[in-house]
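Researcher: Structure prediction, please.
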Amino acid sequence: MFVEIGAFVDIKSGQNALDAMIKDNKVITAFLESGRSNDLFEEKQFGDFGEAGLLTVIVEEKNADNLFDSLYNLLELRTKNVGVLYRSPSINRHTFI
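Model: Predicted structure follows.
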């Protein structure tokens, strides 16, 4: 079984987290998508909008809790208090491919 861990954060934090996740041998795959947001981030590079990152990490279920905690700490969500981190329910391999 696999789990998706995702984060909606500013693009710089997302890129830093992606760099760390792709080095972790417990991560099956990880990728970062970018877009713009006008409500979550203070830094606004585009007028009323800031560049946001949507990080997706796929891991085996047995490693999900540790990687979730690692991402939470890496993104400094407790102190920065900006961003959203989530975890999906278990997904089967055939729904993953």
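Model: The chain has a mean pLDDT of 84.
Researcher: Thanks, that helps.
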